[in-house]
Amino acid sequence: MATDLLREPQITIERAGAERRAILTGRWTAEQAAAIERCAAALAAEAGDSRRVLLDLSHVERLDTLGAWVLDRTRHELGTAGRAVDFVGASPEHTILLNEVAYRGFQPRPATRRNRLYDVLVEVGENVVRAGKDFAGGISFLGEVMTALVRVATRPRRFRGASLVHQLELVAFRGVPIIALISFLVGCIVAQQGIFQLQRFGATPFVVDLIGILTLRELGVLLTAIMIAGRSGSAFTAEIGSMKMREEIDALRVMGLDPIEVLIVPRLLALVIAMPMLTFLSDLAALYGGGLVAWIYGGVSPDVFLSRLRAAIQLNTFLVGIIKAPFMALIIGLIASMEGLAVQGSAESLGRHVTSSVVKAIFMVIVVDGVFAMFFAAIRY
Amino acid sequence: MPLATPELPHRDRHREAVIRVRGLEVGFGERTIMKGLDLDVYRGEILGFVGASGTGKSVLTRAILGLVPKRAGTIEVFGENVDGLSPASRRAIERRWGVLFQFGALFSALTVKENVQVPMREYLHLSDRLLDELAMLKIEMVGLNPDAADKLPSELSGGMIKRAALARALALDPEILFLDEPTSGLDPIGAGEFDDLIATLQRTLGLTVFMVTHDLDSLHTVCDRIAALGEGRIIAAGTIDTMLKSDHPWLKAYFRGKRARGVMTANEA
Prior knowledge:
The complex is a heterodimer.
Chain A: H1 2-7, E1 10-16, E2 19-28, H2 33-47, E3 52-56, E4 60-63, H3 65-80, E5 84-88, H4 92-100, H5 116-154, H6 161-173, H7 176-199, H8 207-245, H9 248-254, H10 259-298, H11 302-312, H12 315-341, H13 347-378
Parallel strand pairs in A: 2-3, 2-4, 3-5
Antiparallel strand pairs in A: 1-2
Chain B: E1 17-28, E2 31-42, E3 46-51, H1 57-65, E4 72-77, E5 80-81, H2 87-95, E6 97-100, H3 112-123, H4 128-141, H5 158-169, E7 176-180, H6 188-205, E8 208-212, H7 216-221, E9 225-230, E10 233-238, H8 240-245, H9 249-255, H10 258-268
Helix pairs in contact in B: 3-4, 3-5, 4-5
């Protein structure tokens, strides 16, 4: 400890008339920042009514940029207060350092402290405008994609079949296990809860109607869409975003290739094709799970389950779900691609856009599902 | 153990080696990158480190920094073997060096000023005023405009990124500065300015500089000593004159090739 005390920067002030001689000792380095600032404050206070202050650096053990900065800042501050301050006994290295870090005022940025309420209103306004722009951007992007699709359709040779198959494998085939599993489990849970509630009215067999209609109309497609948004939407955004970050998108453009045609059309098409297939699979898995639980918990045998199911659902029950699937796919794909193309240079931006891609996609999927529900109700389908 | 750096000028034997590498072996999987490598970096010098692409210049730097595991050999930094260090003394050593990565490695989520303040916040207890002033001081010392302080790395040009990264490397007043290809990707004027900056900072702050470079201009103008890596060891180390006199085929091609002659005549003129 004794050595540490010796090393702490200290200042001894000798008075000689109107002159003060401050002898600095110890290490004037960044580790001692607090002590250095204390010393500087003490020096400023001690300078009092003196005209001239000499800072004797000959006993300073070590000096770094922080020490030199504080010393020169103090010199400057005393100078503006009308006191001449000079360094004496500085070694050549210390002199170089003191010259290098010579005090200069850094204008602190004007602190813009405004009214909280004002800030909140500004933020709300900005977000509304941004949401509106997002929407308009989405429509215009949809237009771009459609033109690209038409271009590809009129010149089928430009269509990237290999890319589509690759994306189909990633989106549809690799997505089967997780989507089937989740749907199966949700089917089980809905059936179990249905049985518990319906038992009280002695209406256990109606659980079949519940599972059949709920799964086919809503649950299957919603579960699939949410899983796809999380699985494939995020992947699209990350892929396209990192390509954007590393100028690969620009490289495509200068080669005369349309990034929308090359990157986005195959992905969107893959999603639109995969989504109804996966929804169908999800329907099957959920019905299977529901049937299993109905058999175990509710004593509804498979024969009864199937015959009740046939009575409860019609083709349109199934179609209501499946019709929605391609629209969900389009929404997820468009949002994912737009977010990917909006990525800026930094890793943080990539992360932000991937998150926002998934959040926006899930939100829009649910909103659109609601709109479809109203629509089908209105046309009594 | 025979030194692999036989061409050391005599005076160097009396100087303090801040980094001493002995018998270093590094490899990945089946591949051995370097074996039996010896290297000394002396206090207060600017050591230029050259070698053909793929010979492991970056690997050696990363091995010294502890980012790549070594298979054998010892590395001493400030006279301490880095193997047997406790985490605390390891951190104490890391505090005393600064690294400028080839592509800057600035944290993209932080502004330039915040980037410079990261090591300060981590290791020092500074008042907010000092923290701000010191960061601005370092930013000015590396020749950046104060306006750049509040910019994000993605808004900077290549040269500005290097300078900002240098400011961050200097944040804690290091004693050793590692530079990985500091002038790559800069235009000749920018590269020349960067060389001058490093030379000035080295003088004012008393730095020891370990510089991996391909820039013949840098080697001629700012480096006190040059070490050449090849065949998994140091082929030669010494001043630029030693390099020019060497008969090693790679050194001949490197220092007396077509491009090198251009630099030499330009320097003599």
